[in-house]
Amino acid sequence: MGEMIKVGMADLKICRYPDALTTIGLGSCIGIALYDRRSRICGLAHIMLPDSTQIRNNSNIAKFADTGIQKLFDDMLAAGAQKRNIVAKIAGGAKMFDIKGSSSSSINVGERNAEASRAKLKSLGIPLIAEDCGLNYGRTVELYSENGDYVIKSVGKPVKTI
Q1: Which uninterrupted H or E stretch holds 46?
Q2: What value does the mean pLDDT take over residues 5-33?
Q3: pTM for this structure?
Q4: How many other C-beta atoms lie within 10 A of the C-beta of residue 73?
Q5: Of these four, 38, 45, 55, 147, which has the most CB atoms within 10 Å of its CB?
């Protein structure tokens, strides 16, 4: 295996075989994994919020589902990936805090992040082939360029590969 490249919060990176990508601490955030099965170019974005148009100071495009996924996709195409070979997997979007008496839509950022991610992938025509979202625990993910495996690790849970 090559190098394990870290992707920070509100960050995105691409790599190619034999390297891999990882991001830690996905709570309500979503880790969006894109993978080109032919070229083995892959990309990982750690998005925090669903929609850049709702925020005034939105200069960090990797922070938002709409702009982060677009940038990740554009970077992969620029590196030689082919749109027809790209598939997506997502993980995260947990409901980390259960606040009593609050309306669920205003507080459940995780669910809104997952929905926004699905919608953006659909608008780009990228098939979402697997996901591990929701519930109430954080996740660390690793994306392997060799085969597109998306490995999800959570404290006290078995390791899952999607």
Answers
A1: strand 41-47
A2: 97
A3: 0.93
A4: 24
A5: 45
